[in-house]
Amino acid sequence: MVTYKKSHIGYIWHICIVTTFLLIAFMPWQSWITSKIDLANFLTPPTWKHPLGTDNLGRDFLVRIQETINTAIVPIWLITIFSSLLGILISIYIIVLKQGNKVLTLPIQLFNFINIFIASIPIGIITFFWASIHEKAGLTPVLIALAFLFTIRGYLSTLNLYNHDCKLGFWQANSLLGGTVHHRIWNYGILGHWREHLVKILSFNLKIAITIEASLSYLGFGIQEPNPSFGNMLASHFDLYLKGYYHTLIVLLAALLITCLFPSSFTFLVKNLLNQNFKKRAGQDKIRRLIQISARNI
Amino acid sequence: MGQKQWLLVKSKKSHLSKTMIKYLQTTILIIGWCFVLSLFWAYLHYFIKTKTFNPKRAREITLKRNSSLVIPSLILAPLFIALFYGLFRINLLFPIHFFSTFSSIILYGFMPAFIALLASGLLVSIATKIGREYCYWQSRPFTLVAKAYGKKSHKFLRKLIIIKTLAESWAQCLPWLFGELIVIECLFNAPGLGLDAWHLAKTRNISGLLEITIWLAAIYGMLIVICSTINKWIGRRLDGYL
Predict the structure, then answer these.
(1) Could you say which of A125, A214, A230 has the minimum Cβ distance to residue B216?
(2) Going along A217-282, which residue ranges are E strands?
(3) What is the DSSP string of A228-239?
(4) Which of A29, A150, A182, A207 has the greatest number of CB atoms lying within 10 Å of its CB?
């Protein structure tokens, strides 16, 4: 009874997160709500005209959050997915290159060391360097820094998975029987149990990408005003929290939290949906096999 | 170079080195508080686990689950600052060193460290690992033999589980801790290496930024070496345990 209730509460939570995010991101709020600068109505609490209230310049929060998601979050997620996949492909290429080629062992180890060193540098520092050298902040340096970071993360994660699994019995048996590295990585790895790990890593990367962008925008090195970003909205209202304007803080933090939780909730729901379909089919196959066995026994 | 110019350069260098020492001290203070809090949290969770342990449910706990919740510091820090100021009139922002006592500076390092632990997922990681390790080591033959000899298993296993958990959790969460440290220092206005890097980036001082990067990489490298050494030592010791 307890596990039944717990699992259903979990499902309801994830469905709420996904539904709220999709409603905020894809409903045509701009056709119903005006979001121009209106200093007569700045910092208003939530009303029917402005469902989440207005900011310090009278702009509607709901429309600003939707613009943030569409102009900043979606490109960041696309870059994250692309760079993670690129990292995985580079890792597979280097694993295949390394097979039976002892000359490349040292350069590959040096390459891995450089990657680990770059991955250890906080991404804020990389973006600070970029902004200092180019005298420009915005979405571009953030996207470039995130692309580097997630390519390296994808590369190192796949390498870790391979280094762990290559010692498994059935991997080594396949190798002795003449199987290629491609075959093992594709069939045992990517179509096997690596899939769950890689999807988890990807959803984590998507969450981290939003927090990194928001943090950099808060520090003034990401997206600049008037372009909307969670970070620059939080920064411009920081002094207001201490004066008691809590609704701005609650709205922005809630929107940021829902956006951060969306990738993991979405992957959870998709995974469970696919698993249920698989279990149904597997269950039907099991019943068919049992009927066949019992028919043979008769 | 004339004598006056040389004196100016010398005074600038000594000012820079004093400022750098102050920034280094604040960053090390926050990391020190992170370690103390993580140790306290590990002991607390171990105590709770020993009191609530159910041997019948021990087998249900899977060893594969290794998730840690990460809540960004950009969400936590403004929330805590606003709540503490609104409810208790406590200002969590770091005080100015010139007007503060040594003990108050030490105390103000607590909240940034707490937020850093929450934001990097270290607290959740420690809590889940302690539960998992306690259930795992309870069923080991050497623990059963120790129980048969009348020893209390929770005292027997305490050191092993806490050291192993802390070493694994710190190694896992250290990159996020460092990433969040820069943002947290800026949010709390704590004069550490992260805040200095921010100011240097705004004034386009690339050489200063490079110096900060080297200091951060050195601290990070030192912590990674400590974590991996402890993990290796524990691994060698545990190889002989049944």
Answers:
(1) A125
(2) none
(3) --HHHHHHHTHH
(4) A150
